Structure formats: C-alpha cells, structure tokens
Amino acid sequence: MNLKKLSVMILMLLSCIACKDNDVHINKYESDMTCTQSFSEVIDDEELKSTSNVFIYNDDEIVTKAIYQSIGKYTSINELNMYEEIIKIYNSISGIEASFYQVDDEIILEITYDYLKVDIDEVEMKIGNMLDDDSLLKKVDKLPITLEEFKSLELTNYECEVR
Questions:
Q1: Which tens digits make up the pLDDT trace of 57-71?
Q2: Per-residue pLDDT at 139
Q3: Which tens digits make up the pLDDT trace of 71-92?
Q4: pLDDT, tens digit (0-9, with 9 covering 90-100), for 96-110
Q5: Most CB atoms closer than 10 Å: which of 30, 66, 105, 130?
Q6: Rounded to whole angstroms, how far apart are CA atoms 108 and 81?
Q7: β-strands 159-162, 62-73: how paired?
Q8: Inter-residue contact 128 to 119 (CB < 8 Å)
Q9: Whole-model pTM?
Q10: φ, ψ dihedrals at 14, nearest 5°
C-alpha cells in the first residue's frame, strides 16, 4: 500500500469518527406525557441555566414509570465525581436506574423509576437523607400512584404535553 493511499484511508477513518461524535444527542423518549421546566440561577456572578424533563408512562391513569432528565452546563470534574456517586447509590435500589452522559458542554443526568418495582422503604433507607422534603418519594406511602396525584405532587410549574 502506498503512502498516499494510506493517508487517504486515515483521513476517511478520522472523518468517520468525527461524524459519529457529532451524532451524540440528548435522549428523547416516546412517553404518554412529557413535562418540561427551565431553571436559571446566578452563582458567583454567572448565570447557570438548566432544564428538567419528565417522561411519564401511565396505564389506565396509574403512573407506572417516569424518566427524570436534568440538563445543565458541564462545570467541573467534581461535578462528574458527584454524579458517579449518585449513580452508584441510585442503581443499588430496585426499580431505579440512573446514568449520565455529556453532549457538547452539557451534562445530562437521567433517573428512571419503575413505580411497579420501587420499594418506598428501600428508598428511605438508602437515599432518604438525600431527598428533598418535596420529593414524591418522601410524600407518598405506596406506589404506584394515579396520574392526578403525580401531577399535583411532582409537576408544579412544569409545562406538559400529552401524546
């Protein structure tokens, strides 16, 4: 193989790799209802914006599953370390799956709750101290709950679209 042909093949390979990198995107889910809320906060004279999406699945007006997606600007390696710890703890709970990934300069945290499998007592034992008092998992005694209960407890100030 001559040097020119090898160079062309390397350039093609590199451009193909670049194409794949550009294909990274923020996940969207086909759910029964999608709700969104945007936030803006000033910290150390810098405005930080984020978006929270909730993808809701229901069966006969009972919420069976929800995917919470938090999108914000990536700020530091410490943030990644914090997300890794959160992921480890959440993934140790039955019915909960957590992950995070980066798209450009944004970091996306996703937590999926299968409300048919989540045990409130296990949640309280493992992450109760991490949850806000306003958290759905702090406010209810059993799961799953109705869509109306879910909306009233979890979706204040969210804009929702039913599919």
A1: 999 999 999 999 999
A2: 92
A3: 988 777 777 888 888 899 999 9
A4: 999 999 898 888 999
A5: 66
A6: 14
A7: unpaired
A8: no
A9: 0.82
A10: -65, -40
Helix (H, G, I), strand (E, B) or coil at 116: coil
pLDDT of residue 13: 41
Amino acid, single-letter form, for residue 131: L
Q: What is the CA radius of gyration of the chain?
A: 20
**Local structure of residue 115 (DSSP, 8 states):** T
How much helix, strand and coil, in percent to the nearest 5, is found in the chain? Answer: 35, 35, 30
Question: What are the CA-CA distances from residue 41 to residues 69, 72, 141 (Å)?
Answer: 18, 11, 33
Give the separation between CA 153 and CA 155, rounded to whole angstroms. Answer: 6
Rounded alpha-carbon distances, angstroms, from residue 35 to 45, 51, 56, 77:
29, 11, 8, 29
* Three state DSSP letters for 69-110: EEEEECCCHHHHHHHHHHHHHHCCCCCEEEEEEEECCEEEEE
Residue 90 phi, psi dihedral angles, 5° rounding: -65, -40
Tokens of 78: 């410490």
- Among 146, 162, 136, which Cα is nearest to 34's? 162
Q: What count of other Cβ atoms lies within 10 Å of the Cβ of residue 145?
A: 18
Please write the tens of the pLDDT for every residue from 42-58: 777 877 788 999 999 99
